[in-house]
Amino acid sequence: MPDWTGVGKTLILVGGILALLGALLTLSGKFPGTGGGFGWFGRLPGDILIKRENFTVYLPLTTSILISVAVSLLLYFLSKR
Predict the structure, then answer these.
(1) Which residue ranges make up each domain of the chain?
(2) Global confidence as pTM
(3) Distance (Å, rounded) from C-alpha 73 to C-alpha 53?
(4) How high does pLDDT run on average in the chain?
């Protein structure tokens, strides 16, 4: 049976780091799509943007796929050690 004692603490640590990173990006104005340093990221071909008079819908399909691939590769290489 595998030892799962550190998994909870690791998930809490990773979640806290992600929340802090998101807060820092939002407060610095460099959040993807806001004209900051990552303006190209979030406006890739395949991302869907629908603007009408009363609403706007944004579906970042390509961006989501790229993030998923990057995180999957990162986790794959980290699990190999």
Answers:
(1) 1-38, 42-81
(2) 0.52
(3) 40
(4) 78
